[in-house]
Amino acid sequence: MTTPTVPLFLDCDTGVDDALALTYLLDVPHVDLVGIGTVSGNTDAATAAVNTAALLALCGRTVPVAVGAHDPIGGSYGGGAPHVHGANGIGGVDLPPGVAAAEDPAAELLVRLARDHAAGDRKLDVLAIGPLTNLAVALEAEPRLPELVGTLTIMGGAVWDAGNVSPTAEANVHNDAEAARRVLRAGFDLVLVPLDVTRQHRFDDADADRFTAAGDPLRLALGTMLRSYVDFYESVDHVRRAPLHDPLAAAVAAGEVEPTVRTTPLDVVVGGAEHGRTVPAADGPAVRVVVTADDRAADVIRERILHVGTVSSGSVGRDGVGR
Ligand code: BDR
Ligand code: CA
């Protein structure tokens, strides 16, 4: 039996693990990536679009990339996470430029694609691997969005596990907690892939070595990014293994790894010491929270990244670092 094609919208803040997730998705035969929105998170939304377009170009792929919200709802962008993802969001790796971003803002592109696909054979699925600002903006423009789209998979939150930007909060939710709360309450068919599970699946130096050994510009760049990401995680986790936050969410969204899910009523704390916490709350909307994923996840993701087609133009150096 062949797997039906899934039209997918990706919302991201590219980002080292976003870059790995995007590359993985480009190799999944039944995923048709029809649009990408960017949002400020790991880096600002405009830089995330530049990074995304550059990666697409290295893979010889054309997907509309739309710049989304620079600032979170009711707040200001805090400057990203250069200590985790490098000053440019992708570990300081300098990539040849891709195609300029689409004219529509990300939320408009999402709404348009959701409507178009709802009128066709298969609803649009959505994968959000950055702060949820664009989705909240799209919901304001189109309150029926939860009915128009299929499944919304979100990398975000720390439900029973500790946070990564505060003792209780995960970065994507913390960066725009108000947006996360709105999206959780909006009635989507929602799957949450939190730190609880993404910390269980990791890449290490051997994975970086395999990417760089492939020798082409894309995988040289990814190997260099991954090594800087592993360096960061060594400084916080004291082990040279980096969690596959966004790639795991992508593999769940693509249906390539088997998740174990615990349906849990959840709320998002907005403000105060626990700002951005995703907390079980009896009166919150029921969310399918992924608690484990099968052990093959890292293998599945690695093999696709090693397999994806690339073009061999560009000026990334042998070490992949800024030229
Ligand atoms: C999430 O935050 C970002 O730093 C990563 O790209 C991932 O989406 C992990 O907390
Ligand atoms: Ca991300």
Topology record:
Blueprint: E1 6-12, H1 16-26, E2 31-38, H2 45-58, E3 65-67, H3 82-85, H4 106-118, E4 125-128, H5 133-141, H6 145-148, E5 151-155, H7 171-175, H8 177-185, E6 189-193, H9 195-198, E7 202-204, H10 205-214, H11 217-237, E8 241-243, H12 245-253, E9 259-268, E10 278-280, E11 286-293, H13 297-307
Parallel strand pairs: 1-2, 1-4, 2-3, 4-5, 5-6, 6-11
Antiparallel strand pairs: 7-8, 9-10, 9-11
Helix pairs in contact: 1-11, 1-12, 1-13, 4-5, 5-8, 10-11
Question: Main attributes?
Answer:
binds beta-D-ribofuranose; alpha/beta; disordered C terminus; binds calcium ion; two-stranded antiparallel sheet; 323 residues; globular; 38% helix; 13 helices; single chain; 11 strands
Report on this model:
The structure is a single chain. With 323 residues, the protein is of the alpha/beta class. 38% of the residues lie in helices and 18% in strands. The chain is built from 13 helices and eleven strands. Helix 2 links the parallel strand 2 and strand 3. Helix 5 packs across helix 8 and helix 10 packs antiparallel against helix 11. The structure holds beta-D-ribofuranose and calcium ion. Beta-D-ribofuranose (BDR) binds next to helix 1, helix 7 and helix 12.
